Amino acid sequence: MASATLKGRKDGYEIHLDDAASFTDNLTDLTALFHQVHDAQQALQEEQANFVITTGNRLLTEDQETAIRALLDAYPHFEIVAFRADVVTTADLSPLLRQTHVPVSIGVIRSGQEREFDGDILFIGAIHHGGVLKASGSVFCIGEVSGIVYAGYPDDAEAVVVGDLTEATQVRIADMVDIVDSSNAHLTPHAFAYVNDLHAIDYAECINLRQIRPRLYAQMEE
User: Where, by residue number, does the polypeptide cross the bilayer (predicted)?
Assistant: First the structure.
């Protein structure tokens, strides 16, 4: 069984590396996949291809990331835009745990699973397609979000969702639902979701959180 699997994305491809396989096997299978994509792109008369590399419960070292990027030397129109894992390093996590007053949950929500929290939650990990994260307060996500994020359940329209929501399926706040559209110019990896004055879910850059939700911002500073 191949240790690297390919699937299409809205803006390119995603390659998942099996974290149970050796990194050497990952590189071998990656080499074959890049060659296959190159042939397919040529047949379609397209050159540019973007890739997101996901590694599950394995954190790649800088040397390993460099080794993967080196495979693209033969394909100058290919680009790796991100490496994503379902885990974080202790060094990355410790400052967050010290600075935030928001409860923290670490894990993976897989397809068909739903996790519910009372109040605000900082979720570190991955929400897979078909997975649901629900909270009665605001939701702060660090990691992959491909499923549904539901903040302000059931009726808190002041709640927000913060995180990279560009690959999410749906964002829900109180009784509002937004089917995520990657073409939305306001939806960026650094945006947050909120309910605007028209009672609809909207997106804004995180630097505007203080202006849009001053009460929430003040609570975070306490």
Answer: none
